[in-house]
Amino acid sequence: MNIERSEELFAKANKLIPGGVNSPVRACRNVHCAPLFIESAKGSHIRTVDGMDFIDFIGSWGPMLLGHAHADVDKAVCEAAKRGTSYGAPTEIEVLLAEKVCKALPSCDMVRMVNSGTEATMSALRLARAVTGRNKLVKIIGGYHGHGDAFLASAGSGLATFSIPGTPGVPESTVQDTLLVPYNDLEAAKEIFEKYGNEIAAFFVEPCAGNMGLVLPVAGYLQGLRDLCTKYGALLVFDEVITGFRVSYQGAQGRFGVMPDLTTMGKIIGGGLPVGAYGGKAEYMQRIAPAGDVYQAGTLSGNPLAMAAGLATLDILEKADYAGLEQRVLAFVKELAGILEKKGLSVQYQHIASMFTLFFTDKPVRNFADVENASTAIFESYYKQMREMGIFLSPSAFETAMVSFAHTDDDFNKTLDCAKKLKF
Ligand code: PMP
Question: What residue owns the CA closest to ligand 1's atom 12?
């Protein structure tokens, strides 16, 4: 595979941008490859500057549930751009998107738009602290809630990938209020509440953990967290930045029937433009300025292009066949895992809706400690060989593959054919 142009751009980028990229995992460092630079994408396919076409299983890490450059989303963005790109004043379209989000997510009476998932979780934490008058937060080991200081203790995503326990630049005093528990362990959650119950402002959880690879909640886990938070007066925050509008149109809360106090969102609600949001019950959200006293603001928040992309995306998703896509993805993942097992590999797959992760281990995966058993060496070989054959996978064993409504049976069959050619 000739990736000369990508390599040239990467060499130049390395002199101008730290690590040559604007977000760490993209650099493909842990799989020891140069990143592929992208020229364009359409549907389920992505094209590099070297003129190569790939079947895309990253989907921009989540936003592209409709596939790339969907005609209706494109049209909405282009038409919005002609009317001006930012006003710093309210618009009708942000009201329409807020209405759509609140209608979709059962726990949200009100929502505030921001520009990224990171901003959403930082703001939700501030609100939870203000509402409860408490400082501590609980997060999951290997859970990722963006790069806000308070969340950078034992986080997933790029931090799991690089085994960085936290990061320099975050004062100890900032993370001293961050308590950690393993995912899917209700006993550990109980213990932490028994010990710190009257100091805990919020319990943050990705309802389906998506940043240690995909790990699904065991039966009763999310309801157990709901009950604990209610008992101790802490706010339950579902970080639905990945799961929102993906595991169902009603998010994980709709799918599992467990209502959080606050929800953080991102990715899909921006249709591929920079958007995040947080929402919840009116009694909490009314505390946000200028309705209330908790400050949070943004020059580009509710940006008309981003709102147009988000609204066009949700318009389509509202009527989309989620169950049909889930069945197709499940059949594909089972077959993919089967092919790899036939090659003598131990594979555990986790799947829900249009996302999945293959873990190269023979033990079941329920939390971050289990995830760490999975072989990153086998993953690296799998990644590199699949990439050579035109399959664009997340360059990390600890990420979730994202499938879109644009993926065809032909895409799945081609991917399976490539898997059959793998050598270990
Ligand atoms: N929360 C979750 C669950 C995420 O997966 C991410 C990003 N992958 C974030 C928060 C942060 O979002 P952003 O990268 O848009 O800041």
Answer: 117
Say if CB 369 and CB 209 are below 8 A apart.
Answer: no
Between CA 248 and CA 370 the distance in angstroms is 26
Predicted-complex ipTM score: 0.99
Q: Can you list the positions of beta strands (E) in 59-177?
A: 110-114, 136-140
The best mutation among 211, 215, 398 to test binding of ligand 1, ranked by most ligand atoms within 8 Å of the C-beta, falls on 211
Lowest mean pLDDT among 156-170, 213-227, 243-257: 156-170
Cβ atoms of 298 and 119 closer than 8 Å: yes
CATH of 71-317, one of 3.30.365.10, 3.40.50.300, 3.40.640.10, 3.30.470.20: 3.40.640.10
pLDDT in tens, 272-327: 999 999 999 999 999 999 999 999 999 999 999 999 999 999 999 999 999 999 99
pLDDT in tens, 315-358: 999 999 999 999 999 999 999 999 999 999 999 999 999 999 99
Verify whether residue 239 is a known catalytic residue.
Answer: yes
CATH code of the domain made up of 4-69+321-420: 3.90.1150.10
- 140 closest CA partner among 349, 366, 351, 357: 366
Ligand 1: which atom is nearest the Cα of residue 121?
10
Cross-strand partners of 350: 357
- Name residues contacting ligand 1 (CB within 6 A): 61, 116-118, 121, 144-146, 157, 206, 210-211, 239, 241-242, 266, 276
Whole-model pTM over 0.90: yes
Domain with CATH 3.40.640.10 in the chain: 71-317
CATH 3.90.1150.10 maps onto the chain at: 4-69+321-420
In the structure, what pLDDT confidence band is assigned to residue 163 with cuts at 50, 70 and 90? very low
Q: Which atom of ligand 1 is nearest to the CA of 118?
A: 16
Q: Which of 56, 177, 239, 261 is catalytic?
A: 239
DSSP 176: T
Distance 118 CA to ligand 1 centre (A): 6
The amino acid at residue 313 is T
Which atom in ligand 1 lies closest to the alpha carbon of residue 117? 12
Q: Ligand 1: distance of its center to the CA of 267 in Å?
A: 8
Decide if 267 is catalytic: yes
Residue 312 CA to ligand 1 centre (angstroms)? 22
Q: How far apart are CA 273 and CA 269, in angstroms?
A: 9
pLDDT score, position 158: 62
